[in-house]
TrEMBL record:
Pfam families: HTH_ParB, ParB_C, ParB_N. Belongs to the ParB family. The keyword DNA-binding applies. This is Stage 0 sporulation protein J. It comes from the Bacteria.
Length: 309
């Protein structure tokens, strides 16, 4: 009798998952024909869960969902069903919280589904935030501003450094920093980037304009004349050159004796570093020293002289 009952036990079902978030999940139990197996304390696995039992993700990095795209996804779900399960964590019996897959979750509601296939896993709040952010960053349809906000949240709320963040998302530090700089733009330009009225290339060019008023003026010109990224870069470069020339014209002339002394210091620095040095100072004794280098070896040589390495 017992042997007969043992023969009827469902065998575990292997889930063919790819790398990334899915790689963290274990094998899922096989469901019987008439019921969904959701143990009181489930290990990671795939289950059919009622949509009414799932709470939305409070850490959701996406703030904007295209209504038309959602409707198209809902129509696809009516025909094809859910191809890729969502991911949730169990809070209590019959109570789950979304980790990733909110578009599929919302579209399934629109499609009139009662249940949805979901990976169930355990995660604390910080792990959940990190998984949700990284999972969303890796999606191709995430816009540049959403990626920038996600990077910022990973740095601030998950206590990651930029190097660690780059490793997690597969980007170098320069790329991460370029996205973070977008958050310094005024709200109108950020909204234009979010709504795909301008590209990240346009936004990166506008960052180099030192005045918000000028940034907004160029932004409006981009929209009105449909300017290319290259055209905006040329416009910004020309504007910055004009500003530098204007600043130089406004600066009072240096005292001849002071100018002579600066020339001598500049020559001494050039002799010391074995390369041409640019020394600049204004009438208030504020200025800068520029030491050009021509290769990584030349830079290391200068750093050794400065006793930095």
């Amino acid at each position: 009798m017992n042997e007969a009952m043992d023969d009827k036990k469902p065998t575990p079902k292997k889930s063919a998952l790819g790398r990334g978030l899915g790689a963290l999940l274990q094998d899922s139990p096989q469901k019987t024909k008439n019921e969904t197996l959701i143990p009181s304390h489930p290990v990671a696995g795939i289950y059919d869960i009622s949509l009414s039992d799932i709470q939305v993700n409070p850490f959701q990095p996406r703030t904007h969902f295209d209504k038309t795209a959602l409707e198209e996804l809902a129509e696809s779900i009516k025909v094809q069903g859910i191809i890729q399960p969502i991911t949730v964590r169990k809070l209590a019996e019959g109570e789950y919280q979304l980790i990733s897959g909110e578009r599929r979750f919302q579209a399934s509601k629109m499609a009139g589904l009662e249940k949805i296939p979901a990976y169930v896993r355990t995660a604390n709040d910080q792990q959940m935030l990190e998984m949700a952010l990284i999972e969303n960053i890796q999606r191709e349809n995430l816009n540049a501003l959403e990626i920038a906000h996600s990077y910022q949240r990973l740095l601030a709320e998950c206590n990651l450094k930029q190097e660690e963040l780059g490793d997690r998302v597969g980007k170098n530090r320069t790329t991460v920093n370029n996205y973070l700089r977008l958050l310094k733009l005024p709200p109108d330009i950020q909204a234009g980037l979010r709504d795909n009225r301008i590209s990240m290339g346009h936004a990166r060019a506008l960052i180099n304009v030192d005045s918000i008023d000028k940034q907004l003026a160029i932004f409006k010109k981009v929209l009105a004349e449909d300017l290319s990224v290259r055209k905006v870069e040329e416009l910004v470069k020309s504007l910055n050159q004009e500003n530098e020339e204007k600043t130089e014209r406004q600066e009072p002339a240096l005292d001849p004796l002071k100018k002579y002394e600066l020339g001598k210091i500049q020559q001494r620095l050039a002799n010391h570093f074995g390369t041409k040095v640019h020394l600049k100072s204004d009438a208030k004794s504020k200025g800068e020293i520029k030491i050009p280098f021509h290769s990584s070896e030349d830079l290391n040589r200068i750093l050794e002289i400065l006793e930095i390495i």
